[in-house]
Specification:
Length: about 350
């Protein structure tokens, strides 16, 4: 399918997914009324009377938009990381960044004061600080000896990620009560329940900037897939490009984990699906991965929020139930072709 048609289809699918996500819940709101509420808010007209305006505008629209932003960011990072390490099974969490973010967030939840802060940082701020700290450690280890290779980067990320995960598990064991432990585990498995309008600005800016940065380096990403020597022979500054990609993907991953927790399989699965549609050219792959990731996570979050009557499922549970069989199917098809 041509990339333009695929983008148009995904755009319509995203619009339908957002409308559905806002419409259904403990109180169903007809799609027409959803768009009436949104139109009134955007044009400055008085809101509709009753509680539905509050449900639609203050609760469900920010959450649906945050799901789209996080999904788009994970799709982008997944496509970039798979080219960065030349491994189609890589995902945004391979480099240990999510482990650092999780450690920071869990530290605030478990050790925080009554106001929920440590050293002035809330959960999101601590998660972002942890992500940057993990990024610094992985970068330092990957650069030891003056070289820089995909294998060294992956090994450093996996090793430091496991090391930080050990500390996170220790902190979970130190949680003071059952409710606190439940809150920690729920955050670690991914949740968008805290979405607000004020919380959309940072992830929106990060995703848009990340898309711009990665799209500007799409040709370089294509060259990296052919190997460092081939990329260098066509004029690509391999070392500088890898450094820029590592910084961009690490910062974007840190922002996403800070607002949503650790959500697996999206960054791993989405680029595979998009390659089946548009091929491996990152000039098309990156924007389509962002759109596909946005659609997928909006749908997943809607399922997580509405599947059970009594409680909300962590998003990571739903992505694992969907993503693992889908990944096995894609791997089986790849093996059949080879």
């Amino acid at each position: 399918m041509p990339a333009g048609w695929a983008a148009a289809v995904l755009g319509l699918a995203l619009l339908a997914a957002l409308t559905t996500a806002v419409s259904i819940g403990s109180v169903d709101v007809p799609p027409g009324e959803v768009w009436s509420v949104v139109a009134r808010r955007l044009t400055g007209r008085p809101p509709l009377p009753g509680t539905r305006d509050l449900i639609v505008w203050q609760l469900r629209v920010p959450r649906a938009l945050l799901a789209a932003l996080v999904g788009a960011g994970l799709g982008l990072v997944g496509a970039a990381v798979q080219a960065l390490v030349r491994n189609p099974l890589a995902d945004p969490y391979l480099l240990g960044i999510s482990s650092g973010a999780s450690l920071g967030a869990v530290g605030v939840i478990v050790l925080g004061t009554a106001g929920g802060t440590v050293a002035g940082l809330g959960v999101s701020g601590a998660a972002f600080a942890g992500a940057l700290g993990a990024f610094a450690l992985v970068w330092a280890m990957a650069r030891r000896g003056g070289g820089f290779s995909p294998l060294r980067l992956v090994l450093a990320g996996v090793g430091i990620g496991q090391f930080l995960s050990g500390f996170t598990s220790y902190l979970v064991l130190q949680a003071g009560d059952e409710q606190q432990t439940r809150g920690v585990l729920f955050w670690l498995m991914g949740s968008l329940s805290g979405a607000t309008w004020d919380g959309l600005a940072v992830p929106a800016a990060a995703v848009l900037l990340g898309l711009a940065v990665l799209q500007a380096r799409a040709r370089g990403l294509n060259a990296l897939l052919m190997g460092d020597e081939t990329a260098a022979s066509v004029g690509v500054p391999v070392a500088r490009l890898r450094r820029e990609l590592f910084v961009a993907t690490s910062v974007l991953t840190g922002v996403l984990v800070a607002v949503s927790g650790a959500i697996g399989f999206v960054g791993l699965l989405v680029p595979h699906v998009c390659r089946l549609v548009c091929g491996g050219d990152h000039r098309r792959l990156l924007p389509l991965s962002a759109l596909t990731g946005a659609v997928l996570l909006v749908v997943v979050d809607t399922v997580a929020r509405t599947a059970l009557d009594t409680q909300e499922l962590p998003i990571g549970v739903v992505t694992a139930l969907i993503g693992a069989p889908a990944l096995l199917y894609l791997l089986d098809r790849r093996l059949e072709r080879s």
